[in-house]
Please model this.
Amino acid sequence: MNWVKKYKLPAVEAIQYEGRPYIKLEDLWNALYSSFNSAQVQEVDIYFLDKIPDKITTEWNPFSKKELIDMIKKYNNLSAPGLDKLM
Model:
């Protein structure tokens, strides 16, 4: 049965942190942990958000809970196969 054999993954570039490639999961976790901790104490300037223009909001037509559930049931089987069903 060929489909149960190990699949050879394509060659990819390793994730690097401070100039060193991290191949082992433990090393990668330590690099992510160090990055988070060093960024956690940095002050963030959020004033750039003030430059983003406001968008006009649109009013929704009122609908009932039953209407919503009926529409979800109607279109629930149109997505890709898998565990992504809404109901």
